[in-house]
Amino acid sequence: MHKRVVFQNRWLPFLLVAPQIAVTLIFFIWPAWQALETSFYLEDAFGFSRKFVGFDNFTRLFADAGYLRSFWRTLVFGVSVTALSMGMALALAVAANRVIRTATAYRTFLIWPYAVAPALAGVLWFFMMNPSLGIVAYMLEGTFGVDWNHYINGNQALILVIVAAAWKQISYNFLFFLAGLQSIPKSLIEAAAIDGAGPARRFWTIVFPLLSPTTFFLLVVNLVYAFFDTFAIIHATTNGGPADATSILVYKVYATGFVGQDYGSSAAQSVILMALVVAMTVVQFRFIERKVQY
Amino acid sequence: MNLKLLALSTAASVLALSTAATAQTEVNFWHAMGGQLGEQTDAFATTFNAMQNQCKVNSVYQGNYTETMTAAIAAFRAGEQPHIVQVFEVGTATMMGAEGAIYPVHQLMADQGIAFDEGNYIPAVISYYSDTDGNMLSLPFNSSTPVMWINIDLFEANNLEIPTTWDEVIEAARVLKAAGVVSPFGKGWQSWTMIENYSAWHDLPMGTMENGFSGTTTEFTFNNDHVVNHIQRLSDMAAEGLFVYGGRRGDSRPQFVNGESAMWINSSAYFGGFVADIKDFKFTQVPMPVDAAVRAEPQNSIIGGATLWVMRGHEDAEYACTAQFLDFLSQTEVQADWAQSTGYVPITTAAAELMEQRGFFAENPGTDVAINQLSLNTPTANSRGLRFGNYVQVRDVIDEELEAVWSGTKTAREAIDEAVRRGNELLRRFENTSG
Questions:
Q1: Cα–Cα distance between A78 and A149 in angstroms, integer?
Q2: In this complex, is the C-beta atom of A105 within 8 Å of any C-beta atom belonging to chain B?
Q3: pLDDT band of B75, cuts 50, 70, 90
Q4: What letter would DSSP give residue A112?
Q5: Which tens digit of pLDDT belongs to each residue from B21-46?
Q6: What's the number of domains chain B is made of?
Q7: Residue B124: pLDDT band by 50, 70, 90 thresholds?
Q8: Number of CB pairs < 8 Å for A and B?
Q9: How far is B26 from chain A (nearest CA, A)?
């Protein structure tokens, strides 16, 4: 005999999912639709005139060499931020998982940076790396002879925003990795140890594969973070400069829409960015998720 | 119209009328003055509120210039606009283009029966903010102009004369570099100081149609040989180590404060902050250098800073208070106090005279350089100011292209040509939206 769970009232299930659907419609679908609609118009700042221009906003973007460069830059930025923040977080989580004494204090400190607002994180790094004032810039010059000036050197500027953006995200990744590590049964690791596997081998053959659901989840979250949530950091540190060295797609959306009040072009850029992230997520779920062991 | 709604709104307005006798009329004032400047701005509102009991001005800091302007525009679109908003000079064309959103100040003052004489303001200020009929559309509040800040100690230690031409700047920079100064020359707000003001100072046009004053079909022309040569000169100075780029806007300020730069071209409004922050060396302001290859004598510099715009869509009683507050801010005493404590230029002739009487200029040598630069000559079509649409974005374009020069990836010619091309695209886009 098996137990069947059936709703008696045929409207009840719809009622139960209604809040979730409403939230999705109001906060995701509706703004996305608005962006799509706006991307076909040319509008003045105050909204007095609105002209339908078809695909003009899009064709302009793709005719702009600066915009196309920004794609490549965004990719470099997104992949670097994700790799750096996840790599560091995993290393810290593995280390924290072994700590026995004062483990809580250690973990708490590692989680703190997450409470720092992105703009503040940007300002923090801005001061540390400032060529005239910054302590890190001073040490780089004194110890390693690196002539640090991210106001001139585009690569240094890109490194600065990558480090700042990754630093901000390490805590978040750390939390998930630590939880993931703690859910791996000790018996598996002990068995491998008895069979003579060293720490490195135990990590790569047992821990890392068992951690793959967490890793996959974080990969998606981190890429979305790097593509969408990092404009405040860039705004506070480099403003997209020098030249357009750190002008990633989401910063361009912000600069065009909020600084330039060109809502049509800004909307067109967000539509392109949305399409890009949707495509990336699909690729991740189709090709990478297959390797995940649940 | 819904009857119930009508009844409700009638009841509400009756209620409003009956309480009007006791309640104060509130006026919202959004500004972009942070830090010490913000405290003083808020203090103006507090003083005004204490002077009378009909009006209450709420002075609110809304972030930097760009953020404040964006916030006001967004608020207007949502019907929640403030009465007064502070907008920086490059936003002028955008605000003027929005005729349905702004209440011209000269008209507001006339409607409210408050005397307002545009002739009180110095010509460089009037010319920047007036429409083609000479009417002032917004109230000038804080105006500055670029000057050259000098580290007197470094100049005296190396027996140097204060440079008046760009050739002398380079000679002085070489001596200072040899003496170990990191970046003898420095600058900030580079589009404003090195292109806009360089052009006005040498009576060169930035664009056609009188720098945009006579129409939105204007095009940029600042890729002339003089500007290109000037940028190339700076690029050569950077290659020689005489100038280290310190970032956009005022980001290079630490270079001067730390003594890394001995000649630093940026706004005169750094005065207040420098007095507070610089204790270990003497400093002063001198006029911007002249490019002898272009002109023997400078024309006049143009202002930067912001004006106060009044927005439409409010009650008449609120506009009465708005007008009173603007009238208060235009008072000579208020203007002079503001200029003395900040380094902004006194924007009325009377305020400048009052500062002279008080002995401020005599006690603080160099503080009159800014006003003298602005009123050096009657402004020409090239030195009156700029009226380009989308100019906030154009400045970003100019920043980007100049940075490509400082980092050595583009020559001055390539970068300036590209800035003009990209700038013209933005102008055409503005023309399309406003047409």
A1: 23
A2: no
A3: very high
A4: G
A5: 457 899 999 999 988 889 999 999 99
A6: 2
A7: confident
A8: 98
A9: 24
> Distance, in angstroms, between B434 CA and closest chain A CA?
7
Residue B77 lies in a domain: yes
Indicate the residue type of B402: L
Query: pLDDT tens across A64-96, in order?
Result: 888 999 999 999 999 999 999 999 999 999 888
Please give the residue of chain B at the shortest CA–CA distance from A147.
B244
Chain B: residue nearest A53 by CA?
B432
Domain range for residue B56?
Answer: 3-144+303-362
Looking at the fold, whether B117 and B233 belong to one and the same domain comes out as: no
For A129-186, what is each residue's pLDDT tens digit? 888 788 888 888 888 888 888 888 999 999 999 999 999 899 999 999 999 998 899 8
Identify the pLDDT of residue B17.
46
Q: Which residues of A touch B76 (CB under 8 A)?
A: 46
Option in B254, B260, B407 nearest A243 (CB): B407
Residue B435 clears pLDDT 70, i.e. is over it: no
Task: Tell me, yes or no, whether B91 and B220 share the same domain.
Answer: no
Chain centroid to CA B352: 18
Facing B76 at nearest CB: one of A46, A247, A259: A46
- CA dist B60 → B77, B292, B318 (Å): 19, 46, 17
Task: Note which residues in 161-220 of chain A have CB less than 8 A from chain B.
Answer: none
Which stretches does DSSP call E strand in chain A? 41-43, 50-52
pLDDT of B284 higher than 90: yes
A73 contacts in chain B (CB < 8 Å): none
**pTM of the shown model:** 0.85
Q: Which of B84, B91, B73, B96 lies closest to B30, judged by CA?
A: B84
Mutate which: A43, A69, A132, A239, vs B, most B CBs within 10 A: A132
**Same-domain check for residues B257 and B223:** yes
Residues B289 and B341 in one domain: no
Of B73, B396, B403, the CB nearest to A45: B73
Kindly determine whether residue A262 and residue B390, on different chains, have CB atoms separated by under 8 Å. yes
SS3 A42: strand
